[in-house]
Amino acid sequence: MRHDSPVARFWADFSRSPVAVLAAIVVLVIILLALCAPLVTPQDPYDLANLVLRDARRAPGYVGTGGYSHWLGTDSQGRDLYSAIVYGLRISLQMGVIASGSAFAIGAVVGCAAAYIGGRFEAIVMRIVDLQLSFPAILLAFVIAAVLGQGKYQLILALVFAQYAYFVRTAHGAAAAERQKDYVEAALSIPLSSWHVVTRHILPNAMPPLIVVATVQVASAIALEATLSFLGVGLPPTEPSLGMLIANGFQYLLSGRYWISIYPGVALILFIVSLNLVGDQIRDQLNPRLQR
Amino acid sequence: MTVPLLEITNLKTQFPTSRGLVKAVDGVSFSVAPGEVLGLVGESGSGKSITGFSVIGLLDEPGRIVEGSIKLEGRELVGLPSHELRKIRGKTVSMVFQDPMMTLNPVLSIGTQIRLALEAHEKVSASEARKRAIAALTQVRISDAEHKVDFFPHQFSGGMRQRVAIAIAILHGPKLIIADEPTTALDVSIQAEILVEMKELVAKLGTALIWISHDLATVSSIAQRVAVMQRGKIVEIGSTLDVLTRPQHGYTRGLLESLPSRAEPGQLLARGAGVVDATPPPRIVRTEKLPALGSPYLVIDAVSKRFEKKSGWLRALAVKAKLAEPVMVVQAVDAVSMTLKRGEVVGLVGESGSGKSTLGRMAAGIYVPTSGSVLLNGQAIMSQGKHPRKLTTRIQTIFQDPFSSLNGRMRIGDIIAEGPLAHNLIQKAEKDDYVKKWLSAVGLDPDFAGRYPHQFSGGQRQRVAIARALAMQPDVIVCDEPVASLDVSIQAQIINLLIRLRAELDLTLIFISHDLSVVRHLCDRVAIMYRGQIVEEGTAAEIYDNPRHDYTRRLLAAVPVLPVAAE
Description:
The complex is a heterodimer.
Chain A: H1 6-14, H2 18-35, H3 37-40, E1 62-63, E2 69-70, H4 81-117, H5 119-133, H6 137-148, H7 152-179, H8 182-188, H9 194-231, H10 242-250, H11 259-286
Antiparallel strand pairs in A: 1-2
Helix pairs in contact in A: 2-4, 2-11, 4-5, 4-7, 4-9, 4-11, 5-7, 6-7, 7-9, 8-9, 9-10, 9-11, 10-11
Chain B: E1 6-17, E2 20-32, E3 37-42, H1 48-56, E4 64-72, E5 75-76, H2 82-88, E6 93-96, H3 100-103, H4 110-119, H5 126-139, H6 145-148, H7 158-169, E7 176-180, H8 188-205, E8 208-213, H9 216-222, E9 225-230, E10 233-239, H10 240-245, H11 250-257, E11 296-308, H12 313-320, E12 329-341, E13 345-349, H13 356-363, E14 371-376, E15 379-380, E16 395-398, H14 412-422, H15 431-441, H16 458-471, E17 476-480, H17 488-505, E18 508-513, H18 516-522, E19 525-530, E20 533-539, H19 540-545, H20 550-558
Parallel strand pairs in B: 3-8, 3-9, 6-7, 7-8, 13-18, 13-19, 16-17, 17-18
Antiparallel strand pairs in B: 1-2, 1-4, 4-5, 9-10, 11-12, 11-14, 14-15, 19-20
Helix pairs in contact in B: 4-5, 5-7, 7-8, 8-20, 14-15, 14-16, 15-16, 16-17
């Protein structure tokens, strides 16, 4: 039985790699946990009224004033670490998806437009992108975050600014290659409008490399956000993300209270590695050179 | 009876894939005598190339020989370890591949590549290697070999590159050369030269040759014996004349009958087995008055097309200072005028680089002419201004490669309905019905509308492309090599489809092709293009029976001709 739609064929190939399937399951579980955070955690770590200082810095397994067991221990303010991690993942995911999604949209539109229109517009846009890609993303994000100040939206803006260039570059390359193909000429010779050709023909076919970049960039946006928060220019302390949890526990790391830093770190690594494994598999599948 | 040089018995080569076992070669037996030229003919997927690769142990993963024996001078090759095979490869048996662009290393000079090939089997000094390289190039008629031995592959034309590949193949005086479609990528006139030279060369050296090709005509002009392959089996083998004039097997007969050069011009060709005749296409409701059949309709008025790379000011400065070469300008089409009458089929013939495709694309409104204009029924087909757009929907195009001309991410129903919906020829509600009508009009199952292009074969895809063009209800169709990438029997089906549709829909066709026999079969008038200009134009009979221009004569003489049975 031949598989019908491109999506079905894609899944058939994807399911052949057990590592990628496992990674995809981890990613899905983390996403589900993050989405249903209030339902699966015993405590709302943002509600300061919930926090009891007597419970601070307790080891994993400690049964606190709330009457439930803190499986991963508590941090310096008496937060249940498990709850904090799940809520932290929620923020990380939110930031990663919104920032990468915006960068994806901007990159796809600008890149495709540059490839289709060509000429001076293409030259200017691509040189700006080249210029920006010559700086490390972390440096750009750091400067922007520092200039704009702390806050969710400021951080998203910084992340988008640090990442959009990758998407523009990728979209431009893919669209420029598709632009030359016969089916685009066929569509133009009907004639269909430029808008129609770009949105219905070029963009869908330029998608595969963009999707690959997107999976990797979500992971890198999450890492970037954690780094910025760790350094103190990311999210405000009222919304502790994973980076901030790690930073908070950092000072206790050598005093035996390892769990405050280690567990959020493990959660972060697990999520980013899984995302990258999924991205690798997608890249392998969509790479025409590796196709049989 | 001499002892055979190569004897293959019951060879079976299989590819275990995720979609099941592919029996590429399924019990093939034949032998080649020393100095004999054997043609191996078949359509794509018949296993002819895999048979060739099996002999020298160059099978791609996961292919392997599961049964049978290959004996070279009595020595069994099946099961030989790879280092033993390597000693034979290039020395006793050598190979010439289809694409000379791919087989030569672009970063090494020709001389270096020949030296490496020499060093693979013997010890030679640098100066001797150079001498041998020059001698080898001279042998394949490359003039000025002392100078050209230092050239890189990109400095050679396709034909020259293939000559270099042949020179490397004969370097060690092999007993057998396996040539896999060696002239398929070349123009007819180059093909004719290579055929003659190869024939002389193997006769002089006493080398046996296995010539693998899909083209019966080229095989017949070089091979003494022919083996016809179908689905991994040899269905017929015998002397070339016998097989081509008195074919015994139904498949061989079908293959020969589907050749346009064998049929009366304009007649339907014999179709491959199991092909359903298409139902007549739906009539078009015309709203405007069109000129009568036979009156001038599409006028190509002195169109030229120049391709030049725009250079920036920095480069312009460098050119001025003689630091850089000026940007190359290619004059693809040079002031060509042509008038097509309504209902006429005009063939545009030329070799690669002659500008025929560029002219076709300007007539179809895909390329904007650098100067001149194309008028349909007295109206320009492109708008004026800085960014001209195609105005008419009455000219549509069919492209050469049906694998790249269909968007792989759209269902074929959407591909066909896209244009008509965008131009309000049909409403959304009528879409399914309309698509089904056109699918059956081109001989496809109407229920295929929900499928994706990858689920179709090349011939079926070309039918989809034809349906897409026709669904726009055009009067003129520009066909750019529409059958060049198809097998002979599929080619016959598509040609038949075009002959029928043209008559039923009163279509005017521009048929671009390098294949003179297809053009003769299909076209009323023929224009021969050479270096961007039309050098000769006339009715098909005039051009083919009484060519006036030198180039036309050369072109016609280069076409290999099949022997015809004496009645």
